[in-house]
Amino acid sequence: MKVAILAGGAGSRLAEETKVRPKPMVEIGGYPILWHIMRHYFHYGHKEFVIALGYKGDVIKEYMRTYCENHANMRVNFKTGEVEVQNSHDLDWSVELIETGQQTLTGGRIKRLAPHLGNDTFMLTWGDGVSNVDLDELVEFHRSHGKLATVTAVRPPARYGHMTFDGDRVLSFDEKSQAHEGWINGAFFVLEPGVLDYIDGDDVMWEHEPMRRLAADGQLMAYKHDSFWQCMDTLREKYLLENLWQSGNCPWKIWDSAK
């Protein structure tokens, strides 16, 4: 099953980082968040990636082009110019990097990936969020209902402390409560090719008309994930993820655990 990743946005709310690189290349623990996302999928056996490029796509191309060289031993013959890469890593990935336009919206980027996705079920996510969602269970859920689309619904971490009151008196204060947050789009999708018929062109936001129409037609189902999920839209969220990685308590780093 191919995995489509949208990696073309400008990431304006991370401007301090994204002046020189696209948001999916912002690093957590010395690796781009895009790499973390791909490792997650690979842990569940998914190794064919189709990445939609846009803003500063050349940075992602260069990273992928040189990844094997930069993570393996190398022998260089200065006399002949011959370069031999030795003892390469075990990431058995196939990555297609597709230019989908600078201004294309999310739905348009998905539509432009259509020739590279084939006629089979595919997975889709954004290049700026990590989770420990069980992708095997997600796919099994999708296959069980027979509809065109499955979206992973998540409860986001509360951005601020949640308070309950008795008049003006604070009864409780919970700094990190998720219980009072509603379900939102967690952007881990499983989709049938028929969803592409719901996208009219480049100026379509996937999260707007296509998903609304799928829901209205009874073709959109939700897989509810109540464990870890975190997007990286701001510097605050980048620092949060970096701190989790450095602490060793990194919920999305499931590839170190036995499957």
UniProtKB/TrEMBL annotation:
One Pfam family per UniProt: NTP_transferase
Gene that this sequence comes from: rfbF
PANTHER family xref list: GLUCOSE-1-PHOSPHATE CYTIDYLYLTRANSFERASE, GLUCOSE-1-PHOSPHATE CYTIDYLYLTRANSFERASE-RELATED
Protein name, as recorded: Glucose-1-phosphate cytidylyltransferase
Nucleotidyl transferase domain location: 4-204
EC number: 2.7.7.33
Organism: Ferruginivarius sediminum
Keyword annotations from UniProtKB, A to Z: Nucleotidyltransferase, Transferase
InterPro entries linked to this entry: G1P_cyt_trans, G1P_cyt_trans-like, NTP_transferase_dom, Nucleotide-diphossugar_trans
